[in-house]
Structures are given as structure tokens and as C-alpha cells.
Amino acid sequence: MSGVFAGLVRPAYRSVRRTATAVLFERRYGVRTDEVVPLDAFGLEHAERERYGATGWLTLRAILPRRTVTADDVFVDLGSGMGRVVLQAAMMYPFRRVLGVEIAGDLHRIAEANIAANRHRLAGRDVSLVHADVLDFEIPDDVTVAFLYNPFLGSIFRTVVDRLVESVDRNPRRLRIVYGNPREEEALLATGRCRPVRTLPGLRPGREWSRSNSWRLYEVLPRPAGERG
Ligand SMILES: C[S@@+](CC[C@H](N)C(=O)[O-])C[C@H]1O[C@@H](n2cnc3c(N)ncnc32)[C@H](O)[C@@H]1O
């Protein structure tokens, strides 16, 4: 796509999407999630940490079919921002527990307000928001769906993926990883333990824009029998 075309199409697309999100999600649920906020707004900028931007409000149900989630499942959004996906996971699925972890205190507090505004829609669902750097967060060994919308890169990403795999080794179970704008997919596949099982292609003109809108669902494979200690 030529630069001029991209320069015209992208802002128009974003403006239509923002209007639809405002009417169909933000106003409907009385929440504030549809912003883009760089982490330097909070003095938290770091080469491996990504800015806040919310997952499209139709994405979760497309990449994670509701019928594949049961009341035994536990969801965590690693880098939960203003809590859009935490709210959707708690409202739309039968998860036993829903967690969100966010490094920026201001975003974490907005997420708390968004959840509080919708308590009556959560049917007593167990929802916890944790204000922490993901590196200081101990991933619970009962998590079965880990959600990552391009929250971090490089060594932070590899550490988190290693911890998810280690968690399955400690407590063998079906663990799925949802990954949006999967910039670090190679690192995920390099573990030899993550198998893609579903893809939502970005379907946008141009390679970069397409990737930034694409989503993958992976399953963490059990440790091979010969490697069990
Ligand atoms: C692209 S946003 C995704 C927000 C949310 N998960 C969603 O999909 O709507 C990435 C989020 O990850 C957070 N983040 C980045 N590095 C982090 C870290 N080390 N620990 C916890 N959160 C982090 C950012 O502050 C940001 O809110």
C-alpha cells in the first residue's frame, strides 16, 4: 500500500472504529478504555514495554470461542491496562476467576473503576486486578488462559513465556495463550512447547498493519515424557 493511500485510509478507519466503540462498548458499559497512552506519561518508559491501547471490543470472542471455556478455567490478562479484556472475560465467559496485571498505577485504577461500574453484570464473578510489573507477578498454577496483547517484548516476553511453560510443568493442565499483534511469536515457538491452534488474520492492507491486527491462539504442550524429572 502506498504511503499516501495508507495515510488516508488508516485515519478514516480508526475514526469509524472509535465511533462504533464509543457507542457500542464505552457508553453501553459506562467505561473508559478506548485510548492510546504511552508509558512515558507515567515515567515507566522502557524499550521492552509497550504502550497502552485496548484490544478491539469484538476480538476476544472471535479468538477465544465461548464454547471452549468452562467454569474450571482461569483467565489472566498480562498487561491489562484499563481492563477492557478483563471486563469482557468476566462478563462473557464462565471463567472461575479472572485476573489482570498492569504496571501503570493510573491505568490500573481506571480498570478498577471500570470493573466497579459493572459489578452488577458480573454475577459475583471472582475478578482481581493487580498493580505490578509482570516480572514481579507470580503466575498462579491454575491459570488456563493467558492473554497478551503485545504488552512487552524481548527478555520480558521470554521470561513470561518461560514462566507459563514452567507452570504447566509444575501443574500439568491445558493452558492456552492468546497473543495479539504477535511480534514475539518466534520466541514463543522457540520454546518448542507452544503450538498455534487458531489464527485471526489481520486483513488490513500492508504487512505491518495486517500483523498488528492479527491474533493467534496457542496451546502449551506437555513436557515430553523423556524430559520429566
Ligand atoms: C497493548 S496494551 C493491552 C491492554 C489490554 N490487555 C487490552 O488488551 O485491552 C499493553 C499493556 O501492557 C502494559 N505493560 C507493559 N509492560 C508491562 C509490564 N512489565 N508489566 C505489566 N504490564 C505491562 C502496558 O502498560 C499496557 O497497559
UniProtKB/TrEMBL annotation:
Record key words, sorted: Chromatin regulator
Residue stretches making up the DOT1 domain: 50-122
Keyword Ribonucleoprotein: no
Top-level taxon in the UniProt lineage: Bacteria
Record carries keyword DNA-binding: no
Reactions it catalyzes: L-lysyl(79)-[histone H3] + 3 S-adenosyl-L-methionine = N(6),N(6),N(6)-trimethyl-L-lysyl(79)-[histone H3] + 3 S-adenosyl-L-homocysteine + 3 H(+)
The protein's name in its UniProt record: Histone-lysine N-methyltransferase, H3 lysine-79 specific
Alphabetized Pfam families for the sequence: DOT1
EC number of this enzyme: 2.1.1.360
